[in-house]
Amino acid sequence: MEMNKVFKDGLWSKEINVSDFVHTNITPYEGDASFLAGPTERTKKVWNECLKALEEERTNNGVRSLDNVTVSTITSHKAGYIDRENELIVGLQTDELLRRAIKPFGGIKVVEKACRENGVEVDEKYLADAIDRAITEMGQEQYMRFRERKRMRREIFNSMRKLDVLQELIETDEITEIMINGPDHIFVEKEGRLYETGLTFDSVERLEDIAQQIASEGNRIVNESTPILDVRLADGSRVNIVMPPIALEGPVITIRKFPKDPLTMEKLVAMGAITEEADRYLKALVEAKYNIFISGGTGAGKTTFLNILSNYIPASERIITIEDSAELQIQNVENIVRMEARNANVEGKNQVTIRDLIRSALRMRPTRIVVGEIRDATAIDMLTAMNTGHDGSLSTGHANSPKDMLNRLETLVLMGMDIPLPAIRQQISSAIDIIVHLGRLRDRTRKILEICEIGNVVEGEIEIFPIFTFREKGEKNGRIQGELERTDHILRSMDKCRRAGVNLK
Q1: In CATH, what number is assigned to the domain containing residue 454?
Q2: Do residue 346 and residue 468 come from a single domain?
Q3: Considering Cα of 224, then 228, then 231, then 233, what sign does the dihedral take?
Q4: What are φ and ψ of residue 68, in 5° steps?
Q5: Considering only Cβ atoms within 10 Å of each terminal Cβ, which end of the chain, N or C, has fewer?
Q6: What is the pTM (predicted TM-score) of this model?
Q7: How far is residue 396's CA from residue 318's CA, in Å, rounded to a whole number?
Q8: Which of 77, 79, 85, 80 is nearest to 46 (CA)?
Q9: What are 300-350's pLDDT values in tens digits?
Q10: Same domain, 16 and 46
């Protein structure tokens, strides 16, 4: 062999044996380092910069800087300088000194956890790039259509960063409500009708993970000790979660979506949910600071209508909004304070209730108090606020009719205070001026069904005077025909209108 003219022959020439080659041909150097040149001044300055960075890295638990956007490869980062004036060779590092790059190839979850421990979230672009790389590698082994790749990319991304199979439902504008009854049954509401989607979660555990994710994003806790939770998503959608052991077949999650394009009174008029006359009437009542209560069944649109109605509040006023889960979006008032109740922690402490917030609101000099929903002894404090100079307050409650709403308020007051029923009724009749009742008709459309004035207590009963009542006029193409018609009743209590200079017609 030609190489044997240069190297000593040995066992390595007959077989692959690196050890023998080294032993035969390499002579160890046993001298000192005098032949080596010392570091230049440039090198010393660069090295000092490195030492500072290394110390910063040690102080920060081994990570000085982290790139959470770019998937690291041999060509992913441009070469950079440590100290441009003193470096003769470029390319010793990335675009920032000791900046760590991240690679998903050992498992993206591991990468996400490591980043989170260092106070950084993996960027969505990074995650998308990592998924694309994995799908590309899969495509080298088996053919995949572009549409299939796109679908897989979306599903993987949603499962890792979003709400898994729910994400697409949430992003579909036509869907108004999502109902998850355990991992195998997911229903949606579209145009007032319920449909089963056919979508499922991989397991109960995966659904539990999603429930925990929703709770954590709202800074709430849901577990066996606190198995029921009301929270909202980042887009304002309202979420109710019920966990095992209360829910027998896995977590139950109900998501009430809020439209990207909020409803307005003009749209309700165009949809036939209310008439222009009733709209003008309610606008005058809000401006004149009548206390208005909105009643209706589940899904009747009470919160939505409260939102719409609250936009008639004059911009010069100071508003306090109080909710279990913040949903109200009052647009035209700048002097607004928004408060949200808080559940107890895992130790059962630090709870802040609606009652607590109403009492606090009374010390904030509110012009009006708007409470999202009254469903417990909070009714006592709300009625007290309405009766102590805070006119123009608004709230909602579950009931099947205005009469039922009054009866329910009586019950709610009795839950928190043992006082005679006649006294409760007197309190209610003095506090509430108007009840607006909403409902769903049998064709699933939402309508304002009644607008009533609340009168005095006569012979032990609270008087109710309908001002507007919905009248059916048959059906057409499966839709109920009819509209909200004005009755003969003239508003008895005109004092607030006169004080506000509002003319009711």
Answers
A1: 3.40.50.300
A2: yes
A3: positive
A4: -100, 15
A5: C
A6: 0.67
A7: 20
A8: 85
A9: 889 889 989 988 999 899 999 988 877 787 878 889 999 988 776 666 677
A10: no
